Amino acid sequence: MSKKLTSRSTDYSKWYNELVVKADLAENSAVRGCMVIKPYGYAIWEKMQAELDKKFKETGHQNAYFPLFVPKSLFEAEEKNAEGFAKECAVVTHYRLQNDPNKPGKLRVDPEAKLEEELVVRPTSEAIIWNTFKGWVQSYRDLPLLINQWANVVRWEMRTRLFLRTAEFLWQEGHTAHATKAEALTEAKLMNNIYANFVQDFMAIPVIEGVKTESERFAGADETYCIEALMQDGKALQAGTSHFLGQNFAEAFDVKFANKEGKQDYVWATSWGVSTRLMGALIMTHSDDYGLVLPPSLAPNQVVIVPIYKSEEDLEQITEVANTILIDLRKKNRTVKFDNRTTHRPGAKFAQHELQGVPLRIAIGPKDLANQTVEIARRDTLTKETVHLNDLINRVEALLEDIQQSLYNKALTYRDSHITEVDTFEAFKTALNDKGGFVSAHWDGTTETEDKIKELTKATIRCIPLENKQETGNCILTGKPSKERVLFAKAY
Amino acid sequence: MSKKLTSRSTDYSKWYNELVVKADLAENSAVRGCMVIKPYGYAIWEKMQAELDKKFKETGHQNAYFPLFVPKSLFEAEEKNAEGFAKECAVVTHYRLQNDPNKPGKLRVDPEAKLEEELVVRPTSEAIIWNTFKGWVQSYRDLPLLINQWANVVRWEMRTRLFLRTAEFLWQEGHTAHATKAEALTEAKLMNNIYANFVQDFMAIPVIEGVKTESERFAGADETYCIEALMQDGKALQAGTSHFLGQNFAEAFDVKFANKEGKQDYVWATSWGVSTRLMGALIMTHSDDYGLVLPPSLAPNQVVIVPIYKSEEDLEQITEVANTILIDLRKKNRTVKFDNRTTHRPGAKFAQHELQGVPLRIAIGPKDLANQTVEIARRDTLTKETVHLNDLINRVEALLEDIQQSLYNKALTYRDSHITEVDTFEAFKTALNDKGGFVSAHWDGTTETEDKIKELTKATIRCIPLENKQETGNCILTGKPSKERVLFAKAY
Questions:
Q1: Which of A244, A403, B56, B241 could pair with A188 as two cysteines, CB 3.0-4.6 Å apart?
Q2: For chain B, which domains are there?
Q3: CB-hemisphere CA count at 13 Å for B141?
Q4: Is A31's CB within 8 Å of B128's CB?
Q5: Contact B35, B163 (CB under 8 A)
Q6: In sequence order, what are the residues at sequence separation of 6 or more whose Cβ sits closer than 8 angstroms to the Cβ of residue B331?
Q7: Which of B67, B96, B118 minimises the CB distance to A34?
Q8: Partner residue facing B72 (CB), from A36, A107, A132
Q9: Beta bridge partners of B28
Q10: Chain A closest CA to B475's CA: distance in Å?
Q11: What 3-state class would DSSP assign to B154?
């Protein structure tokens, strides 16, 4: 194994970058800002996908697939959306390469093969999808349309980081069309809540559900719901968003329907998405200086069994025991691997599984054989215990459940102890700089003040929590009256 | 429902295009040559994906994800591969749009935001993946690398058709690296065989496993294995390919490993893929003039239950019976839907399910209630039978199995009756034009002759079957000696 990770206290950012690469989650590619998601990282993403996909389908959504490219004229149809994404668009201008006459063996863009209209590589798919919905909706009978797409998107970010901010990323984007405003609002809130439950129950990450301020809204939305998480370094991370789009896209793409009374009306819309950015949230919420820590629900291998032996005879006996454990755990739908590689010593295997966050490690040595025991090590607490084979399966089940819950509780305790209420701008700056985390403060409701606070402190309003206590007060910057606190933080 | 499909005998191509759209499988988009895969079509593709993914994982492959873009300098590294795809590449040249100063509200490509190096939208991922593998392989211990990717790719086709030939399509591409030539060859053959079994057992489409001639090989491969199917109009369709890439990509990207003796050697490679083109094969193999016909293994709904009623009281009783059937069939892992929409009459529902290829339709009316029966209609044979409720579940199970097998047998009978052995060029042309299908003929083994035959007849060599009888003869065009027959056909 390679040498130890940089510790979080030494350099949090370096710790993160090293961990992502050394735990075999992802790496940078030859393409600026684009990552390679390695098999171990992709296996975790697949588990997220499977669970989310199930939740979407249970709530009546269907998957479909829309083109990667958006013709420029469609892209610019919804003006706010276009303006929001124009500065980070990869643009296809040509459709052919040819041999470079000046450089034998090299290719160049064929100047004859210029597209009449440039194609934008989708940064999000509202434009192409609403142009399609136009053909799918005539009457109220065609509504609601509840569509989801799993896809890659491209946003040309200047400063990129593995999983957190990459030029290309993987995501799902839901796009729905409704007959009424109320129904669309309900959908937007429902999906935000599905995200919240998924992230909390499945990823063991506590989140705050809220709405964005106008300046932090999705370009083209009338309201953006969000879930906000807190990382171990005190910075917030937006883990998912769900947008109520009003009739903006319906108007831009002329999508009307005949209602029950036969009158024509524009359709109401939502869109919502989570991305491989969640991998970053997962890593930064639970991991430690020894490497990745995974909640059992997301671990490609929940349990790994490592044999410790000198003789072939010992290995044979250990293998027999291990195979019984494998069968019993698989009956319980647990993922378990017997790491009997002969190319690595037990110490190297221990280090690798620790680095890769396998929740439970079972070691079996000759003494264990004699005593009918095994040694179980928990990745989250790094504690060990000896368990009799008769009790093993129940113990593993209990430990996996405990790990899932403990990780959530630990993250919740950290998060809750990092929400600081302040009433002055001085206290605000102190909380932000000395302690980090969310700062709960009164704000006068204007974009101007929000911008000014951001300029002075780098903190943004992460959200106005959905279940917010109504409490009068005065804006920390301007002193103007306010009727509720909002959550500020520095954010990823 | 809309009016009837054009019949296959009237215009096969028109029948196909109409069917794809009317059965809600896919439609053309605003982007030239790119399709929208609609929810019903995507649900079928998801079933294909799930089964293939399972087969890949069972044989030790892992999923990963590599960038959408390939820098031009990497793209051109393997010369044959680059040459093969250069003419159909979408190329990203800019990374930003800006407001068009001449047209208010419109955008234009920002001339300042030109990329230093153009990015090719992947037509296939060997280049970017082998550039990555370079960092993953040092020693024989790192081999084999068995990687698969589910992704979208873009090939700028001039003449496109839904599913069969689209500028963007979805596929999986396997990329593996091995220590020896023998191992890589075994892998390429294994994956071709996995494709063959999948297409035959799961899609009910008979295929011939074979190898391509040099001129039909994948650009950059030393050998291309393939599976070839036959459509109802007598044209062949290449349903999947698996390539033995030799050391070509390892040499181009300098991917070496230390073998057990410590010597450096280039790695051996394979790549293999199937795509949404399989949807086209599925449609064209089984469907009829009434619409889509689906094998039960791929049907989003294997059974649909339609209530026929006049009074609300009848509906209540029918619903009770239907719910029992739903529960019982779901226990058997069958997908079944109770179509109790009040917006459509039974006749319209029947027509829709027929058009969309639901394998079994169960109708329940008031008389059925009295007699404790239902009416079952088979989509493939369009036959109906009345079944007592006591026998229903067993009968449905038996029918679904029979449909799966019957569809395969029917396609096999058609295929086998459309392989014609000929020994003269006149007979060759007659077989090709009057009967269609595969024509089995002797060929002198030269690309020159192959090209000439293609020029004269539009027929290409689809493959040299893997289990080919060795039989001396004379080339149908040149009369030169040949030691085995090859399969010609006009192809999609």
A1: A244
A2: 12-72+124-286 (3.30.930.10), 299-414 (3.40.50.800), 419-489 (3.30.110.30)
A3: 7
A4: yes
A5: yes
A6: none
A7: B67
A8: A107
A9: B35
A10: 36
A11: strand
- Chain B contact set for A158 (CB, 8 A): none
Cα separation, B453 vs A213, in Å, equals 68
CB-count exposure of residue A426 (10 Å: 0-12, 13-18, 19+): exposed
Separation CA B356–CA B1 (nearest Å): 12
Q: Which residues in B lie closer than 8 A to residue A168 (C-beta atoms)?
A: 67-69
Query: Element (H or E) spanning B284, and its range?
Result: helix B277-286
Task: Please give the Cα distance from B252 to B249 (Å, whole number).
Answer: 5
DSSP annotation of A307 reads E
B67/A31 touch (CB, cutoff 8 Å), yes or no:
yes
CA B122, CA A320: separation in Å to the nearest integer?
A: 47
For A276-303, give one letter per residue: b (16+ CB within 10 A) or e: bbbbbbbbbbbbbebbbbbbbbbbbbbb
* More reliable by pLDDT, A469 or B39: B39
Neighbours of B15 (CB within 10 A): 23
The yes-or-no verdict on residue A412 having pLDDT over 50 is: yes
* Rounded distance between C-alpha atoms, residue B240 and residue B202, angstroms: 14
Which of B215, B231, B223, B82 has its CA nearest to residue B163? B231
Decide if B95 and A91 are in contact by the 8 Å CB cutoff.
yes
List the single best residue of B27, B92, B112, B345 to mutate versus A (max A Cβ within 10 A): B92
State residue B2's pLDDT score. Answer: 52
Residue B61 phi/psi, 5-degree rounding, is -85, 150
Name the residue among A31, A8, A50 with its Cα closest to residue A289.
Answer: A8
The tokens describing B147, both together, are 């990687």
Give the gap in angstroms from C-alpha A66 to the nearest C-alpha of chain B: 5
Rounded (5°) CA angle A479-A482-A488: 85
How many angstroms separate the CA of residue B32 from the nearest CA in chain A?
A: 9
Angle at A372 between CA A370 and CA A377, to 5 degrees: 110
Which of B73, B91, B103 to mutate to probe the A interface, most A CBs <10 Å?
B91
b vs e for B418-451, b when ≥16 Cβ sit within 10 Å of the residue's Cβ?
bbbebeebeebbebbeeebbbbbbbbbbbeebbe
| A106/B170 touch (CB, cutoff 8 Å), yes or no | no
B105-108 own/partner pairs: CB under 8 Å, 24+ apart: B105/A76, B105/A79, B106/A76, B107/A72, B107/A75, B107/A76, B107/A82, B107/A86
Of A63, A98, A152, the CB nearest to B68: A152
The verdict on pTM exceeding 0.95 is yes
Alpha-carbon distance B373 to nearest alpha carbon in chain A (angstroms): 31
* Residue A1, pLDDT score: 45
Average pLDDT value for residue range A458-481: 96
Mean pLDDT of A459-479: 96
- Model ipTM over 0.90: yes
Chain B residue with the nearest C-alpha to that of A82: B107
- Whether residue A68 and residue B154 make contact (CB cut-off 8 A), yes or no, is yes
Q: What is the tens place of the pLDDT at every residue in B83-135?
A: 999 999 999 999 999 999 999 889 999 999 999 999 999 999 999 999 999 99
B64–A37 C-beta distance less than 8 A = yes
Write out the two tokens for A99: 């041999």
CB-based contact A128 B92, cutoff 8 Å: no
Which residues of chain B, if any, have pLDDT below 70? 1-3
**Which chain B residues are within 8 Å of A38, Cβ to Cβ?**
64
Whether residues B96 and A87 touch (CB distance < 8 A) is answered with: yes
pLDDT digits (tens, 9 = 90+) for A52-97: 999 999 999 999 999 999 999 999 999 999 999 999 999 999 999 9
Contact B38 A64 (CB under 8 A): yes
Tell me the chain B residues in contact with residue A119 when contact means C-beta distances shorter than 8 Å: 31, 90
